[in-house]
Amino acid sequence: MASGWGITGNKGRCYDFWMDFSECMSRCREPKDCSLLREDYFECLHHSKEYQRRNRIYKEEQRQLRAASQKKKEGGDGGGGHH
Q1: Residue 4, phi-psi category: left (phi > 0), alpha (psi -120 to 50), beta (remainder)
Q2: Is pLDDT above 70 for 78?
Q3: Between these two residues, 52 and 8, which has the higher pLDDT value?
Q4: Which of 14, 18, 19, 80 could make an SS bond with 44 (beta carbons 3.0 to 4.6 A apart)?
Q5: Angle in degrees, CA 79, 76, 82, rounded to 5
Q6: Does residue 38 fall inside a structural domain?
Q7: Coiled coil where (predicted)?
Q8: What are the φ/ψ torsions at residue 46 (nearest 5 degrees)?
Q9: Half-sphere exposure of residue 64, counting CA atoms within 13 Å on the CB side?
Q10: What's the domain range around 41?
Q11: How many domains does the chain have?
């Protein structure tokens, strides 16, 4: 993946992230100085943060649907005289 060649023969999608990270590692004193660039590179490769966010959004949508469904059930059980 770090070779720069993607699956179609063009530059790989994460190559620029790799080059930034690699350049940082070659000139830094502490590897932790490049932790944000490393994080960006791994996110490009694996999309783990994106998947976590999508999962949280999906779970919240499901929670809201369940709450609305529960509210509808409670409201439709003959308690109609409340104002």
Answers
A1: left
A2: no
A3: 52
A4: 14
A5: 30
A6: yes
A7: none
A8: -110, -15
A9: 6
A10: 8-48
A11: 1
The DSSP symbol for 33 reads G
Reduce the secondary structure of the chain to three states and give it as a string. Answer: CCCCECCCCCECCCHHHHHHHHHHHHHCCCHHHHHHHHHHHHHHHHCHHHHHHHHHHHHHHHHHHHHHHHHHHHHCCCCCCCC
Q: Give tens-digit pLDDT for 25-46.
A: 999 999 999 999 999 999 999 9
Token representation of residue 20: 């930034």
Q: Indicate the residue type of 46.
A: H
Pull the structure tokens for residue 41.
């590179």
- The single-letter code of the amino acid at 38 is R
* 14 inside domain: yes
